[in-house]
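Late entry, written up from scratch paper. The run itself happened at the end of the previous shift, but nothing got recorded in the book at the time, so transcribing now.
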Amino acid sequence: NLKISVFTLGPHWCEYCANFMWGLIAQGVKCADCGLNVHKQCSKVVPNDCQPDLRHVKKVYSCDLTTLVKAHNAKRPMVVDMCIQEIEARGLQSEGLYRISGFSELIEDVKLAFDRDGEKADISSTAYEDLNIITGALKLYFRELPIPLITYDAYPRFIETGKIADAEKRLESLHEALKLLPPAHCETLRCLMAHLKRVTEYEKENLMSSENLGIVFGPTLMRAPGLDAMTALNDIRYQRLVVETLITNEDVLF
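Output as recorded:
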């Protein structure tokens, strides 16, 4: 996450080649995640494996997923784990779980709590009695990811998978498509799909089938930039099919 930077207040040295950074403006680039300072030329050969510094990760929402988990040395974002744990602890029988929206102001409060307090955020029933606030906060987290959970690069492959009519061939194609996701994205997707499968086990009570959850989560987890309105509208059907297949076959695919 390297960005051109102006270095002031004294001399600065490149942390890659150890040479002085000459000039008055735009002398080099700085990584917004770990704080690394290097020449623009050196940035071309710097390994893309930085360990983000928590001092540079100011929030949870709208933060790149891989950057967030690296900064916290975790497998998945804590907001995902905490919300899922809270939802399952309160029970999965709530009618319309994930379909019914909570008050947007309170969902925004949960977002601010995570951004401010991180894993110390209070999302208990004492703080938020309505479970739909927590499900809404989890959906909002995925909607605000700068790179969607199913990434822009992988999006076309997943959509093509959704177009396959044969269920067995679709499953095979989906298994290959998952390999295109970064590790943190794939692990988070696995965790979410396992949770949503547990939601479907209470379908008689919550009325949320894998198809209904696919309708809710398809556009939330899959977004493609620059699509014309008609293509985006047509893709909704395939987004639903992809998520529905992921939920139903979670134990086989991951």
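The chain has two domains: 1-50, 71-253.
(Scratch paper discarded after transcription.)
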